[in-house]
Amino acid sequence: MLPVAFVPSTPLLHPEIAGSAAVATAKTRSAARRAVDTLLSRTTVLVLGGLGIGGRPPQPTQHEPVQEWPASTADCLPGFGLAGRIGAAEGPLPLSLSLGRLLLMDGGFDGAMKLISLHGSPQAVTAGAHRLDLPPDCGLLVVGDGTATRTDKSPGHHIAGAAELDDQLAEALRAGDPRVFNRLPTSADTQFLLDGRCAWQGAVTISSRFGSPRAAELLAFEAPHGVAYFVATWLVGEPNGDAPNHGRGG
Hints:
CATH class: Alpha Beta
Order of helices and strands: EHHEEHEHEHHHHEE
Number of helices: 8
Radius of gyration: 17 Å
Helix content: 25-40%
Low-confidence stretches: 57-61, 80-90
Strand content: 15-25%
Strand order of the largest sheet: 3-4-2-5-1-7-6
Structural class: alpha/beta
Distance between the termini: 21 Å
């Protein structure tokens, strides 16, 4: 069985960063802690995130859609150093991976972390995630936001269809339905400022090795600042079935 936790890619999950906005994100923050708790008993957690809106591959000559970052890489969070420099070859982690790592640390996780960024088309992300080696007894922490074009006050202002897309994504998380994520096009990243596509598509690809989600719960769906924040948990696999293939797909 593979536990999967979905959390937003916002530093507002940390009260010391959120400041006066901490009250507006209290429910999301509490739900994120509950989601991360489902991973703490695992020996290894894979943290999956994108490069951020408009993110580029970590190296200009690198075409692989998946990169594993060293655990010693500096965080890219306000107050944690080097904010804003996302995508440097040896620079700080993407925001999503920084946040995922800190959430696990805050939860007291003492196992191994694999920090993995994904970028590119759905086909490229799926192919790259399919080739990942999975350690035994692992879990997934998937970090990404929904649209940032829901209202006139959203970072990308209002784009028709954004709220409806967020509703579809929330329902897919609640129902444990991977098909909605697989259908997301690359154009959604720029059209709706959709931050989570690559991480979600990578997670769906990885979890498909274990089977289908048998238990899914949507813990929070809010947009306090015009950006959709989702928190959800899935438990994927067959309790009495054969062990999944943890090696590379082919």
